[in-house]
Amino acid sequence: MAALRFRGASLFSRRGTNSFSLLRLNPKPDPSSLLLPSLLISRRCISHKLFIGGISFYTTDDTLSEAFSQFGQVIEAKVVMDQATNKPKGFGFVKFASEEEAQKAIAEMNGKVLNGRVIYVEKAKMKPVYHEGTRPIPRGPPRPWEVD
């Protein structure tokens, strides 16, 4: 009987040729398999994400993280890049570990100069969730008037 193992716990046990059955995982996980606290924070959505607009095209993830680290623990700082040209789009996101740190960063950094450009900082808005099979209604320019 062959067993598929993941981090020391049997996940599936093979019975016969092509049938698998799910086995119970070990209730006591291996300490080395535990996730880092920063990963737990981002997976549980405990972190507080800020939108940073108007940033310079010379700003990198590291400089953004360094600028906001004075207000608290920065979990992630990301400058959004254009996929076609691989150049920054002029905005980014910063994740903080607590609400107080995020509010302090908003109060202190909104309207300040970072790398030669005035930035504005606000809470990031959630992406809209579309259910399977639905899409947003395409809007576009209005149709021209037809004259009879």
UniProtKB/TrEMBL annotation:
Superkingdom, taxonomy of origin: Eukaryota
SUPFAM superfamilies the record matches: RNA-binding domain, RBD (SSF54928)
InterPro entries attached to this UniProt entry: Nucleotide-bd_a/b_plait_sf, RBD_domain_sf, RRM_dom, RRM_euk-type, SLIRP/GR-RBP-like
Domain RRM per the UniProt entry, residue ranges: 48-126
GO molecular function terms noted in the UniProt entry: RNA binding
Extent of the signal sequence: none
Keyword entries, A-Z: RNA-binding
PANTHER family hit by this protein: HETEROGENEOUS NUCLEAR RIBONUCLEOPROTEIN 87F-RELATED (PTHR48027)
Protein known as: RRM domain-containing protein
Native species: Rhynchospora tenuis
